[in-house]
Specification:
Blueprint: H1 2-10, H2 15-36, E1 40-44, E2 73-75, E3 78-80, E4 84-93, E5 96-105, E6 119-122, H3 128-134, E7 154-156, E8 159-162, E9 171-177, E10 182-185, H4 192-196, E11 199-203, E12 209-210
Length: 214
Amino acid sequence: MKKNAIIRFLTKPYVYAIIFSIVLIACTTYSLLDVFVIPHYISAATDTSDNSDTSSTTSSSASTETSNTGNVTTTSTSYEDDNIKVTITTIEKYNTTIYVADVEVSSPEYLQTALANNAYGTNVTATTSDTAESVNAILAINGDYYGANKTGYVIKNGTVYRSSVRDDYENGDLVIYKDGSFGIIYENEISAQELVYMSLQLLCRTTVVQRLTI
């Protein structure tokens, strides 16, 4: 009798539509969670502290880990040692409190980046304060959210983590070169392998830089 009831239920015209809808919703939900929520750890961050051409990992910041600090002077809005000087200014504009950090370093090795949870992957997240504390950063700001995208160069502290050209390559990336200068590059014009020989950091998607035609 129970078997006959199941057969009668499955022969109803709307049953398969309901089953299909449930499966479709489940698959869509999983796909969205997989893309935007579920973390996927691909590799640990590369420790480059022993490499003379690069520097140890920190969070978009100046760090005491590689700084020969010497005499240190700090206030609530400033930090200064023999290699790093940071001054924070507060501006009230557009009904918004804006914090401006002026950073001076003796070498570009003191301007470094860190990966959330010290790992490269997708949907790997951590608060800026936790990341800064983990690397003893003097100043830290949140960086580009590379993990939300499948393409686009990822270069941190002289290490290439991803070398595929971003889909919207007409938008430029900000590069910090090894001599301390900044520049804008377009990923369809230079490979990540070529770029890493010249640069320490690459920041993309944080600010979109459009190529202008004059």
